[in-house]
Amino acid sequence: WGGTNWPSAKVIWKGCGIAMFDICSQTLNYTGASLAGPTIFAIVYSSVTVWTAFFSQILLGRAMNVWQWISVLVVFGGLTLTTIDSAKVGGDVVHGLLLVVVGSIMHALTYVMLEAIMTV
Q1: Would you put residue 61 in left (φ > 0), alpha (ψ -120 to 50) or beta?
Q2: Predicted local distance difference test score (pLDDT) of residue 87
Q3: Global pTM?
């Protein structure tokens, strides 16, 4: 396609690796949802935004002011309180909860890794 600039092979392979990482995160999320129940899944999966902000700060050096961090902590606290209240919905809540937490963290890392290769 004459004149179109394609990314380098290295960037394409990184993107493929990130896609595989995201497939693993989604597998953990939906396996956890089947164990913990839909309520806990929805609440914990909402934390992806919180984790993305956290990892963007650490891994990409994105600056957030104090009010933004307070907002992240308020959202995280609200998610935690709501999850505690819904703890008896699924069949194996603890195992499912752990899977969804790890899957959500991995999904947030997917966003951060994609931003890292897109801004290089």
Answers
A1: left
A2: 60
A3: 0.81
